[in-house]
Amino acid sequence: MVMEGGCACGEVRYRVDADPIFVNNCHCSLCQRQSGAASAVNAFVEVDHLHLLSGQLSEHVVPTGSGKSQVIVRCANCGTAVWSFYPRLGRTGAAIRVGTLDDRAAIRPDAAIFVADRSDWTALPADVPVFEASYKPADVLPPDRLARLMALAARAEPLA
């Protein structure tokens, strides 16, 4: 799968040349606050498959629920969050904000997580596994994607 996306002003454009390893629809209170939305939908891929085509990026460090920090990568011009780097995968894996993809409908979450924090009016798809908090990837992902995740995690370095 090849996907492209970009920011709200059009300055940042990127291409992803691999299927996501996994896609989370996170309803935690931090994702709500940091995204300004009811949830954040992130498609995780190896950074080797993410290519910046145009534009300048800025980085912003914010907390995660674990107490460690994530790095949100934004368009330097308009501030749209285009991807993040999370502590578990460091800079080896990027969490692409699905809302920035040109074809957002091509991506479907593997799991809805931290639904204990979701707003009561937020609907959950019937065909997506739902978790009050997090989950074990081995319980959700097919073997090929789990192997990619484990390989990625094995070479991850802590975020600076």
In short:
By secondary structure, this protein is mainly beta. The chain has helices at 29-35, 143-154, and strands at 3-6, 13-16, 22-26, 40-46, 50-54, 57-63, 69-75, 81-85, 93-97, 111-113. It starts with a strand and ends in a 6-residue tail after the last helix.
Task: Give a verbal description of the structure.
The chain is mainly beta. Helix content is 12%, strand content 32%. The chain has 2 helices and 10 strands, in the order βββαβββββββα. It has helices spanning 29-35, 143-154; strands spanning 3-6, 13-16, 22-26, 40-46, 50-54, 57-63, 69-75, 81-85, 93-97, 111-113. The strands form 2 sheets. A 7-stranded mixed beta sheet has the order 6-7-8-9-4-3-10. The model has no long low-confidence stretch (mean pLDDT 93).
